[in-house]
Amino acid sequence: MCNLEDLRVRPLHRLDNRGTPCALGLIRASEAMEALPRGAVLEIFSKDVYAPYEVPTWAGKYGYRILKHERRGVFPFRYHRFLVEKP
User: Fold this and answer.
1) CA 20 to CA 68: how far, in whole Å?
2) Which pLDDT tens digit goes with each residue over 54-65?
3) Are 43 and 82 in contact (CB under 8 A)?
């Protein structure tokens, strides 16, 4: 199903961390954000249960802005999706 809100924000880069531990996922996210230009949006997928706490903390530490966080999928394939903007 198409979400009209998603059409307004187009991620420049997608990072699929669903098979990655959160600590390594945040390192990969930092590397991806460094490579992106200002104003770009990174879409991050994670299955880590702590991602809803760790990703916003990471974003705040580096001055990134969480545009959206949602849970997708059904158990046992549920995951988190974040849209993070680089100011």
Assistant:
1) 21
2) 999 999 999 999
3) yes
